[in-house]
Write a structure and sequence with these properties.
The chain has one domain. With 439 residues, it is of the alpha/beta class. Strands 4-3-2-5-8-7-11 form a seven-stranded mixed β-sheet. Strands 1-12-15-16 form a four-stranded mixed β-sheet. The protein is globular and about 60 Å long. It has twelve helices and 17 strands. Strand 2 (54-57), helix 2 and strand 3 form a beta-alpha-beta unit.
């Protein structure tokens, strides 16, 4: 199976209630404000690297072009720009989309002046065109926004973007994800421990989301995209092995994909980029590693649930701690904001097939938008007095344990996957900081 893949590879990407009374007294977790010398304190220039681009990819299909870019994406873009503005924690925020094919998109983002706009038609390679054409026979069509098709295309578009813009690394963020915190403080860890990184969703490990998708170098992304190309060209045994593996998680449907002698096949929707990411991780665990998606907490091991702690920062399923925070594959955003099919009316929703969903049940975890306490500047003299310059903003935090146990720590989320699409509700807002510590 691996040999077949390698051969193919040689042939061939605030409605939420904010409790301002709860101050999260955590140092260096969110937006650092120590601009003593006027620069961000994190060195992003090691190894010749430039500022980290935060990349959004969203293709608008002709059937929905008349609506332009959805409002929720405009809010996630503004939130990412807000994060990038805080002491230069990251570089540019990039939106790659089909501007020329759908002119209304440009109107939708016309007031987001700091946004870097990339028209996908200008970077679309022959390889991406071939993938887009052949993928229509693999992924289920919906004849509107084409979620499953465009979700897979984006990885090839990320490759085109890296090659055309000479990006050495990037953080891709899905369009319904709000980003938080001092991302630059994580770069040394991501570069060291994660060639590629994504967020595991299901306890069975057959769905992995690219809510955030870290790319440390173009070579690792090329390897993953070669794998995707091998999937859709159906060369060798790779696609057959994938279907055989997926069957035990996504069967059965009459008339489904790869039906057995009884006509029962794999549910078509399950053949998507999430299961392909999961199968790739199964084949190449050292190239695509899993980000931690639950906090450090003594979760009980209870059947039929998985060992949730395995997916914590110290767990063996994760590639290692990423600062003091964790990541949201989908579950935390569903819990705090509800789901898209209910338009957010089912806040508190828990999917027990999800890793974090099982953590919420067993660990009695909660998610809240809280006022994040910033690190204080080193005192400096100004007219004979010490001056502190700091500010605080809201962000999502997770806490597990019995309700009312105030000693359990809050863990920040670096992203929130807002499944309801009500992203405006979860943008950071200024909030009152506590008094500075005594000098």
């Amino acid at each position: 199976m691996r040999l077949s893949f390698l051969v193919c590879a040689l042939l061939c990407l605030l409605a939420t209630q904010v409790d301002n009374g709860l101050m999260v007294g955590i140092d260096a977790l969110l937006y650092q404000s120590d601009n003593i010398d006027g620069r961000g304190r994190h060195d992003r220039g090691e190894g010749g690297r430039g500022p980290l681009p935060i990349v959004f990819v969203y293709i608008v299909m002709p059937a929905v072009c008349k609506h332009g870019l959805p409002d929720y994406i405009q809010h996630t873009l503004k939130q990412a720009l807000f994060v990038s503005s805080l002491n230069g924690s990251v570089g540019s925020v990039v939106l790659a989309t089909n501007f020329k094919e759908c002119p209304l998109i440009a109107r939708s983002v016309s007031k987001i002046t700091e946004l870097i706009r990339v028209d996908t038609s200008e970077i679309w390679s022959n390889r991406t065109a071939a993938f887009a054409n052949m993928s229509t026979r693999v992924f289920q069509a919906d004849h509107r926004g084409e979620l499953w098709l465009t979700s897979a295309w984006r990885f090839l578009i990320l490759e085109d973007l890296m090659v055309s813009r000479n990006y050495t690394e990037m953080l891709h963020v899905e369009a319904d994800n709000t980003l938080y915190g001092d991302i630059a403080s994580l770069l040394s860890v991501l570069r060291r421990d994660y060639p590629l990184a994504a967020t595991p969703l299901t306890a069975s490990k057959h769905f992995v989301t690219a809510s955030v998708f870290w790319v440390s170098n173009v070579t690792s992304l090329l390897h993953f995209n070669d794998y995707l190309m091998s999937m859709i060209t159906n060369e060798g045994d790779l696609y057959k092995d994938y279907l055989l593996w997926l069957r035990k998680y996504a069967c059965c449907k009459k008339g489904g994909v790869d039906p057995d002698q009884h006509g029962n096949g794999i549910k078509p929707f399950a053949i998507n980029e999430m299961s392909m990411l999961a199968f790739y991780h199964r084949l190449f665990p050292n190239n695509l590693k899993m980000l931690p998606v639950v906090p450090s907490f003594p979760f009980l091991v209870r059947k039929p649930f998985c060992n949730i702690s395995n997916f914590s920062p110290e767990g063996w399923e994760a590639g290692g701690p990423t600062g003091a925070g964790i990541w949201d594959p989908n579950s935390w955003g569903q819990y705090i904001g509800g789901t898209s099919n209910k338009r957010g009316r089912n806040k508190g929703f828990v999917d027990s097939s999800h890793i974090a969903g099982q953590g919420i049940i067993i660990g009695k975890c909660i998610v809240q938008m809280l006022c994040g306490n910033q690190s204080y500047n080193q005192p400096q003299r100004d007219s004979g007095q010490y001056v502190h310059s700091y500010s605080c903003y809201t962000a999502p935090f997770v806490r597990c344990g019995q309700e009312g146990n105030e000693t359990n720590p809050w863990t920040p989320l670096w992203n929130l996957h807002v499944h309801s699409k009500h992203t405006l509700d979860y943008r950071s807002t200024s909030c009152p900081c506590p008094a500075p510590p005594p000098i």
